[in-house]
């Protein structure tokens, strides 16, 4: 740092931007020193030694640079110094000023100093590497420190992509003049690059001219462990008979490496050629303490467990020396014969590689963080259909990458930290969102359907107004776990949704844009970072209720079951129970399983920066070992008590496949203070029934748009704990909801899926050319969207609903790939129609956040009704206002729905002008106003509403006048009548309020219960067909 606190970067920049006058500290344009240095060299050397450099004036810059070929006594040119300065902007400034000179003299870019270094080999950051490569720096130039200049630079910068790109063409065993390989260099630089080199076949015991192995140079405990797992000789001796422990003990800060070597039982009594032990050679107290207590200890022994996978690779698992628990991510690929280690004795035996795909079983342990598979495994598996995506399908070999885990650059980007009440959630699928060729991604072949491809479509989410994405499963799953073919065309079906998790720590390898080990981790983190950068949160759909074990009747490969089936699964007389419809049920409240789930959630929050989780079939997670639902489950208590999860959002799909005990909507346990949000399936069903005109739904509709207080208020929760939705991945899309009366799922090879869709095709089944039918469908889609976004609660929409994505009547797309893709060309066509409508509607909701993004339920202080509750016709009108708002510009909203075949007249409040914002009966762009200037003033007191339409009107007034009107028009007492009170306040369960008079409420409750039971029964049938399993543990 200089006197002003500026860095070398700002110092060099001052040359370009500084004053024209020469400062007192610089007497004249600097000339070469006796040793060939110019002022820049001398100043930089003083900077490196901690001295205070003197800034050069702007007028002296061109002269200061002078002859670019001049070097110091060690052969360092100006470019050498700028490259090693760790200041990319400084290097950029230098190249900007003299780029033409360097272009004309390429020998300057590749100049070699007396140590054999080129500027490229000295670059210490990725930006500098890129700048030098733009100048055509030669990556093949060989400095003395490493086999290749670019390889040395990449290792120093810990740039995995750079290193891996060189591995494709380079010789890992190439030596420099001192006999050192790239692995020697990587280990010496204290970087995890050594693990990558090992995974690509670098020899771990190769010796340099001094007889030293890479282990002699290891500066990092993880590097030590990796080298040892790759069979590096723990007590190898160099020409002086020194072991790795000797050398580690003499290095400053070498205690962690010494500890790792001792934990692996390095010999502390080994003596070098001078007869000295490691303790004799060190002067560091912490190292001496370690050596003094060294000795065989079961607690420090490196133990291994079997990790068998398909093919000829094996990952080995280190136990944490502290407590014997599995240490996440301590595994490494050994690309040789199988090595099976006994869990008890530690003895090992070598087994020949598998000669066929099915020869060995799988044992994929719970804490591994990366997975992959050799190319030959893909061929042997018969899964060539999935290799067309670039060979990224990944059947379950466990190979974590350390730098991808711990050295990712988050660039200072923090999670947005939105309150749940402010979220607009967009449920989507990573592959389905961008896999369509019409997505027109950059580098489509590599990025389509991947985490990096998702990033390119962030502008669409921002334009729509989304601030949270809920991603269908991104944990590693087996897409081939579907044996069926499409009976219509013979196409092999795949497991598209991903609700069949293989490993819960591993992001899906096929969602990576590269085949590299650990690339999925980097890709996922990059996606999260870029979403967070623009204020979009990431919520993961997680499937802890069951695992991929036992799906489709397969029991020949195991993970959890091979370790402790009776602990990880709910069993009935030793057999799997099927509360999930997928073949097994995880025993989430077993203490061991519970710890594993909480650890996994913490990993995704802390390491992957995830903002929240949606728990699939969450009711299954409340069940004890006997299969019974608990309202105070251990898992929820531990999640509530875990500090690392304190800011994470939890959303429950509060049902499973067992009725009625598994239906917990409105009463899902939080394990502590009210916290859990729930997918509100009752909101979905009620809105669907009302909008399509089912008689007698007005009161239920009013309950839902007010925030579902009957479900959430009794246990201290708020409106935002209700996740309101019309459609989700499981069921019809919005377009199909108004286009089909029944499911069309024969393309799945079965007729699975829900039969209770509450859908209406508007007069014709499926695609039609009838104009009046298409017009009605467009109106109904807009009506649904208004009901969703003009309701209290947290709204969620399904990807593609904003333009009308169709799955051709398939309401169970779990095994359909292309059918579930987002169509960007269709979205563009609808940009001025439905897409525009949804975008402006979301913006309207945000403008009135005081009404809709609430912490309390809507009451008679916020809403005034204009409705006949006993009229079976579905017409409702109400006025909304924010009773906390102040000011003369206060606005009220009038919302009315005419969900039937009749024309209805809406009486508008008198004496105040009303302006139309929305009328879904009108064709775009008149269906919704772009801004206040485009609102249409209503001249009449009556607004005529066409069948199946809704309106939103706005008035400018003060609260007093609106209240005065409401008292005069609707009566001073705004309390609801007994019937409406019952509708709004009742609990949606098998029990109903006993004080309600009349049979209508009882009939409504019974009908809703029957509908919910029918939906669950359909789900059970569908999931049982998916899994091929018998239904155990419950009846329907």
TrEMBL record:
Segments forming domain Glycosyl hydrolase family 13 catalytic: 427-845
Swiss-Prot/TrEMBL keywords: ANK repeat
PROSITE patterns referenced in this protein's UniProt entry, alphabetically: ANK_REPEAT (PS50088)
Tree of life domain: Eukaryota
Keyword hit for Manganese: no
GO biological process, one term: carbohydrate metabolic process
Sequence ranges of the ANK repeats: 240-273
Name of protein: ISA3 protein
Protein encoded by which gene: ISA3
